[in-house]
Every structure is written in structure tokens, then in C-alpha cells.
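Let us work through a complete example step by step.
Step 1: write down the sequence.
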Amino acid sequence: MSGAAVSRPMREETAPVSGQLVEAAPGAYLLRFPLPPSLPIPLHVASPEGVRLVTWALAGLDADAADGPVCLLALEADGAALRGGVSVATHFRDLALRPEPAPADALSAAERALLARALLSAGTSGLGTLGALFGLVERSVAALPVADDAPDLADEAGGWSLGGTAIPLGLLFRTGAGWGCARVTRSALRFAGHPRQHLTLEPVWGAAPAGLPERSFALYAHGFTALTTRTS
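Step 2: predict the structure and record it as C-alpha cells.
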């Protein structure tokens, strides 16, 4: 289970919960903490100011999970702002969290897989954070399957084109130069034969969108699609 941040009125939860704070890059953090039995859904960071909840995922929901249910929060913040604790507004009640520094290996493979899906579904505002946290989820992203009927990305004269009419907000891709991410600033649809769109891209991080990528993903406001590739 995962989702992006939304808003609701704040209420305070008094008992602090200890959490593991992984600093993936300056200003980009992953906060892991155990969930109470009510399984509250994170909505936004109530305090301190300057801490933004980018997306979240719930893990360990299976009955045989060793650590029980845990929540993963992808945060943008000044590290100093997190030292005094974090209050997270949820659909049930606010949670007071006490972050403690932790290494990246605090996350299990299953948790990284869930975090990968949450980051790929975080929308335009999460593209930068996806890059900052990508080292935590790269293997999980690379392992995502491609459906037999997935749209295709092609390298054409003037840039990349995408099959279908669903216009993505961004693209994540891997070329010979490595992984990169770009924002879609314009999509020109054409309907000769099968619907296809020529994409105008603005690089966000990593490799430039050039040449036919080895892997690619179309990123939407609340989801993503692993793409096939073809030569034009």
C-alpha cells in the first residue's frame, strides 16, 4: 500500500515512536517506523515546518512478517529540522516520531520493492526525490516486469515517441550512460495507424534522454507503466 501526501486538520499524538532515518542524499531521507495496530494512513507532515512528505508505503502487512507492519516515509527536509522529531498527520490521529540515524541496509528487499513502486507513482513533485533516493531502489526498479501489451517507446528523428494516448508526466529510463529521469513538457499526438505521441522532454536528473533506452517507465500522477522499446 502506498500513496502521495494529502492534507487534513492536525491533531497531536503524544507518545513518540522511534524510527530509523536513512539519509540517502542531502535533503532526501527515508524514515522507517513500526505502525500501531490501527494502521494509520500518512497524510502530511504536521511539524516541523520545512519537512515535506513526498510519498509513503506500508510494508510487513502479511501475518508472517518478522517485524510486523512498518511505514516508509520519503521525506524532503533539512537534516537539522528532523533532529527534534517529526509529527505526521494520519487519517486516524497524529503520530509523533523520534528519528534515529540508520544505515541503508535497514530496509529489506521487500520494503525496497514497495518503496520503488511508491516513488514511481509520486507524480511530478516526486521526480527529484526519486533521483535522490534511487540508490535505495535501483535493483527493485530494474526487476519490475514489462507486460506483454505494454506501450512502446521509440527513438525517432527529433526525440522519443510513445505509443498510446495516455500522456505521462515524466519518464524514467536507463541508457548506456546510466539511469535518468525527464519531465514531459509537451506531447504531440498523431493518429495515423495507431495512436502515438511525440514527447518533448526536460531532463530532471541523471543521463540525458538520448538514444534508444534499455529500460523505460512512463510515470503518471498515481501510477507508472514499464515500457517496451522499439527501433523506428
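Step 3: interpret the result. Residues 27 and 218 are 25 Å apart (CA to CA).
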